[in-house]
Amino acid sequence: MQTAETIKNIVREKYAEIANQDKALNETTCCGSGAAGGTYTIMADSYANLPGYNPDADLGLGCGLPTEFAHIEAGDTVLDLGSGAGNDAFVARAETGAEGKVIGVDFTPAMIQKARANADKLGFNNVEFRQGDIEDLPVSDNSVDVVVSNCVLNLVPDKTKVFNEIARVLRPGGHFSISDVVLVGELPDSLRNAAEMYAGCVSGAIQMDDYLKLARKAGFENVTVQKQKPILIPDNILLEYLTAEQLKAFVASGTGIFSVTVYAEKPGEKRERAAKPKVSLQKLALKEACCGTDSGCC
């Protein structure tokens, strides 16, 4: 049985490698892990039609589109857990606008460096990336409105800590929308203990019912599954970890691996947004009239 620190080191090393890997390779392997197998996409959904999408920040590592379901409003402070190169953070920024703020947290230095470079290139001064462990977030209590995450919590050894941390940093009335990998039925030990599969998001997954229970135990309300789809891992990948006989038994067992997007709310009254200052029609008309002359008043 691998220790929590060993698992974290495996994930950190693999994702440092992934940060400098081609997106096409990430998409055609098990959540970027580098497992062998032909050309196919196991989990990733396309971001291409979402406002704020930046191809340079998309490493093809997700298993859903949490920002699409996150109900982000203008002026919100959004926290992205496991922010990678900034993909979900930049999509969230398109929703929260220049008056809002987006914070990305990732514990892989190479990912933080890549995300910051992308933010600088885009000229965003309200998106920041902090290096840290999502089991112990470098974020103040009751300071964010929305938490998003994409295919990350399944990598974390202590998911209870993560849900408790999400509850701590969310403001009362805030909510999360998280895409993740879960199980229905038990994985064979050889899959669960495989380092490559762990970094590839699969063997760190827990039972769907247990996942939802952890959110409720952390105090969240209205816990709902917004989207669910099966993840079908090709036999040639599974045969890296299972014998032919074990594969046959695995298929017959009915065990399912799913990508889900889960939503939940922190109890409390949602905060009032500050009203945007309004410009009077009279002042606006005066400005337009004056700017249409050579008087120099503008």
User: What is the fourth-level CATH superfamily?
Assistant: Vaccinia Virus protein VP39
The tally of domains stands at 1
Name of the level-1 CATH class: Alpha Beta
Percent helix range: 25-40%
Q: Assign the CATH architecture.
A: 3-Layer(aba) Sandwich
- The SS-based structural class is alpha/beta
Describe what you observe in this structure:
The protein has 298 residues and is an alpha/beta fold. It has a single domain, classed as 3-Layer(aba) Sandwich (Rossmann fold), CATH 3.40.50. Helices cover 34% and strands 20% of the residues. It is built from 11 helices and 8 strands. Strands 1, 2, 3, 4, 5, 6, 7 and 8 form an 8-stranded mixed beta sheet that branches. Helix 1 packs across helix 4. It is globular. The protein starts with a helix and ends in a 7-residue tail after the last helix. The C terminus is likely disordered.
